[in-house]
Design brief:
By secondary structure, this protein is α+β, with helices and mostly antiparallel strands. The protein folds into two domains: 76 residues, Arc Repressor Mutant, subunit A (Orthogonal Bundle), CATH 1.10.10.10; 136 residues. A seven-stranded mixed β-sheet has the order 4-5-6-7-8-9-10, with helices on both faces. A three-stranded antiparallel β-sheet has the order 1-3-2, with helices on both faces.
Length: 233
């Protein structure tokens, strides 16, 4: 009689990491796992979890394997199961994870959370993190915009962040210059209260594996700023 496979140890660690980050490439999973598994050992365990129907792997760009939980895998974590990943969202969620992990490496930033870990109830950013500047903490929401939304939708989103109490600022990030310029125009048409809450950032190199904050262009309160000017890193 075949016994049911119960993920423990490194298997459980892999599932919990995928529950936290939603989707990870093998390189990131190798860096984050808590058992210091070699790449081939890790890949063997991922394939076992795939065989058990707990994770799914897809290749993006023809070479990089990206892993995420199936509905069965989600039931083994403490994370909200109402956000199973969809194939069309993989690239977006990978970019969000890359941005958030970059922020988590900065001094003065901590408690980073992906969207399914945020329970504000009013506003649902892609990610959020706590920052410290001039000895004061602030809550930063992160929105990754890979496709342009309508003017009404974006302006309403700007207003909700400005009026809400959960976040001091929201950072909208894109890799498309035309989108960045359009959102800058939308924001310029809004009142000072909204402009104080919204930061726009353009990084032409933004991808599923890269966030080049140092070479990015930022707009805050109608003025172009460097990333260092705004966040001190």
């Amino acid at each position: 009689m075949q016994t049911e496979f119960v993920p423990e140890g490194p298997y459980e660690d892999i599932i919990n990491l995928l529950g936290q980050w939603k989707v990870l490439d093998m390189k990131s999973l190798s860096e984050l796992n808590n058992y210091q598994l070699g790449y081939h050992n890790l890949l063997k365990k991922v394939r076992k979890l795939e065989h058990e129907g707990m994770v799914k792997g897809v290749s993006l760009g023809g070479k990089n394997k990206h892993i995420f939980l199936t509905q069965k895998g989600f039931t083994l974590t403490s994370y909200d199961q109402s956000y199973p990943i969809a194939d069309e969202n993989i690239a977006h969620d990978l970019v969000v994870g890359t941005v958030l992990r970059t922020f988590c490496k900065f001094p003065g930033f901590y408690n980073g959370k992906m969207f399914h870990q945020i329970s504000d109830g009013e506003i649902f950013p892609d990610a959020a993190i706590t920052g410290t500047r001039d000895n004061e903490n602030f809550q930063l929401a992160i929105e990754v915009e890979l496709t342009q939304k309508s003017q009404n939708r974006i302006k309403e989103k700007f207003r909700r962040y400005a009026k809400g109490n959960a976040f001091h600022y929201v950072l909208f990030i894109t890799n498309k210059e035309t989108l960045f310029k359009t959102y800058c125009r939308f924001l310029a048409e809004m009142n000072v209260e909204v402009q104080k809450a919204v930061i726009l950032l353009f990084d032409k190199e933004l991808s599923i594996s890269k966030f080049n904050h140092r070479k990015s262009r930022c707009l805050y309160m109608g003025e172009e700023k460097s990333f260092r000017d705004l966040f001190g890193v």
